[in-house]
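User: Hey, quick favor. My workstation is busy. Could you predict this chain's structure for me?
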Amino acid sequence: TEHATNAGASAVLTLTPMFATPSQRGMAAYFEEIGRRTDRPLLVYQISARTGVTLSVDTLVELTQRVPHLVGMKQSDNDRDYLRDTIKQTGPGFRVFMGLFDVAWHRLDDGACGFITALSNIVPGAIRDIYDAASSSKKMEAGNIYERIAKLVVIGALDTNPVPVKHMAWRMGLIPSPECRLPMVPLEERVATRIDVALDATG
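Assistant: No problem, here it is.
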């Protein structure tokens, strides 16, 4: 966090602690300490399937009162009630961005304000167009645009994220290598081929 702040980051997105499965009090203390180490807008990144913990709405509300620059979260859990409760209890100044893109645009009606998704690096125009349509109540248009990139969403789940997305970015010339740090390993050839075909079909 300090390095990101010193490097000039505009905001800080911080994952909930993983492996140790801390209590709610422990997670609150963790984010308060992060808040003391940066003056940049701070967002919680919640993806319980990977971390094994969920920051409760009550704890989140307490944190927004203790850490004034805690301004939002990336929610990568498909929990509609959690999203609605968060929006209701934190107020209009707190922003929730969805990270699960197959459901993200459906959650705009529930109070989500946008997306933070890996595919934004691959098809940014389509992601923007889906947001514009869905946020303007043009659900059919949003659905039609989504269908054009749906294969990438599905194919991206053939291996652990971010391996497929890095492969796509490499294929597009956006990064010099698809290499990931261990324990992530390169795609199997058959999976890489399927991703290449889907990427080419998407254009």
